[in-house]
Design goal:
Layout (H helix, E strand, L loop, with lengths): L14 H13 L3 H10 L5 H15 L16 H12 L22
Helix pairs in contact: 2-3
Length: 110
């Protein structure tokens, strides 16, 4: 009990929304088609074409989501590789100053 079963899938157009979209397509250009046509029209100013592209982009290309990677135990891969390289170098080739990885958000300043 408590779980939803059946029915319209999330994000699917309801009957009224589908009717509106079908009517717009039957009458001529949809708003997205208009934006794409405007974007491709080389007679338009560059700024107009750019604005049309920006407005149409979310309907064509999905937004990328930021993801956070977590590394369990040990050094991050780039630091481990750097340490391995430093250990294989001859003493006279090692840098005079220590090499520090770039600071990450939240790191304490020394």
């Amino acid at each position: 009990m408590g779980r939803k079963t059946g029915g319209r899938k999330k994000g699917a157009a309801n009957k009224r929304t589908r009717e509106i979209a079908d009517k717009a397509a039957a009458e001529g250009l949809t708003p997205l088609e208009y934006l794409l046509r405007l974007m491709r029209d080389e007679r338009q100013e560059q700024a107009v074409r750019l604005d049309a592209a920006k407005a149409a982009a979310p309907y064509i290309h999905p937004r990328l989501q930021a993801t956070e990677a977590t590394i369990k135990g040990g050094l991050p891969p780039y630091e481990a590789a750097l340490m391995e390289l430093m250990n294989t170098m001859a003493d006279d080739m090692k840098p005079a100053l220590p090499i520090h990885p770039p600071r990450r958000a939240g790191d304490q300043h020394e």
